[in-house]
Model the fold of this input.
Amino acid sequence: MIYDIQVNPAGEIYPSKGVVELGPLMEQAGFGAFWKGEANNTDPLVLLCGLAARTKKLKLGTGIYHIYGRSAVTMGIQAATLQDMSGGRLLLGLGVANKTIAGWHGGTFDRPLRRIREYAEIVRMTAAGERVEYRGEIYSTGSRFQLSWKPEYPSFPIYFAGLGPKMTRLAGEISDGVLINMAPPSKIREIAARVREGAAAAGRDPVTMEIVAKVWVSLHPDRTVARSRLRQVLTFYNVADHYTEMLKAAGFEREITAIQQAFRSGGFKAAQSQITDAYMDQMPAIAGTSIPEIKERLQPYADAGVTRLIIPYVPVIDPVLDDARRFIEAWGLNS
Done:
């Protein structure tokens, strides 16, 4: 299993310049890739370009870029540009997001399977330098588009963000793997099986499928402190509909119900108070007191089939960049 890092967790603002300056340290610590997500925060590709300029081996992942923020042709141009800048280090995670994010960009959230299939096909053709004259059920590119240069690195992995049966099977059918957020090992095992079933049904080798998952981590000698901001992040996911359905299916319906009832009656802080230590310890979240302990608690994810594990680091003390630096240095010392 490859360990990757993310230092832009929900609810925290890391200055982009400071994250770029941490790039060489992430590489030295032994992380395989840096991942950047997208919602209403800083742009993934812009930040990854800065990291590409400061690093040599660290892979650069979008975890995830949603399909509503830019056309598929634009995404292909951006991907080809970063590929050439970085020497072929891009890992492109794509997702269909949700109605809220689609609305921000004037989009319509419908037919997600068809949308991401067509979007990924156009991105691949564009970034490979092919002539693109795509006529799909949803997307059309018009005539005579082709990059003005020949890309040096014309191919790269594309992963689909997925939790449900249809999207995860589609990931196995046409992408290079799946990117999973907020799923415990038992659910990851189910998802990995579906991805590989989708690959086999499409005549592809299931063994080649990457299973990429996130496990949120905080680090402090005092576990109570380590839990503090991590609890804030977990509350967000426990009141978001898409994730709560998956967590209920994973056996946490009682906990989800209590959290959402508290949220409706008392708001976010009331919901946060319902994230008990016992529940936190069953989620893909580790409030660790040492790096060896964190690595030991990550092992069940490898056993569940994860091939790349993204660690979104949740800082527990200010300034957040200094805390992230301490975590990265400690990881390197224990690698």
